[in-house]
Amino acid sequence: MGKLMDFLLANSIGEDTKEVVVSDRLKDHPFTIKAIAPEKYDAYLKRAQKDKALRERRAELEFIFECCVEPNFRDAETIKAAGCKTPQELIDKVLLIGEQKKLYLAISKISGFDELEAQVREVKN
User: Fold this and answer.
1) What does the DSSP 8-state code read for residue 95?
2) Global confidence as pTM
3) Mean per-residue pLDDT, 100-120
4) How far apart are CA 106 and CA 21, in angstroms?
5) Domain layout of the chain by residue ranges
6) Collapsing DSSP states into helix, strand and coil, what is residue 77?
7) What percent of the chain is helix, strand and coil (3-state, nearest 5)?
8) Sheet holding 68-70, edge to edge
């Protein structure tokens, strides 16, 4: 085994979390996020193929409710108490669109997509 594989095996991906602040409005209330798991991402890609028109928006919402540890947008009691039927409705009810976008971008970054997006932009230029 090489040094890189030794490192990867000793430092495998897990449930690491990170706190992020998405707006001045919520500066005293950071969100706790985690990276999206590969199997969740694969499942999302399969669902997104059926709904191309809403793919980007749906990706953002799914990343948020899958990867936001605190607050837990998937909690059934919270969804019901807010008068919502789905995690997506709850997110739309409590977060501004810009806050949702920043939260999605933070989740993308912790999941390793920031480097990929930069490489894609570099190739396009």
Assistant:
1) S
2) 0.73
3) 78
4) 9
5) 15-124
6) helix
7) 60, 10, 30
8) 17-20, 31-34, 68-70
User: With 0-12 CB in 10 A as exposed, 13-18 as middle and 19+ as buried, what is 61?
Assistant: buried
Of 1.10.10.10, 3.30.2220.30, 2.40.128.110, 3.40.50.2300, the CATH number of 15-124 is: 3.30.2220.30
Which amino acid is residue 103, in one-letter code? L
Cα–chain-centroid distance for residue 21? 14
Rounded to the nearest 10°, the torsion over CA 51, 57, 58, 62 is 160
> Residue holding tokens 């793919």?
55
CA-wise closest residue to 66 among 99, 111, 124: 111
pLDDT digit string (tens) for 36-60?
878 888 877 777 777 666 677 777 8
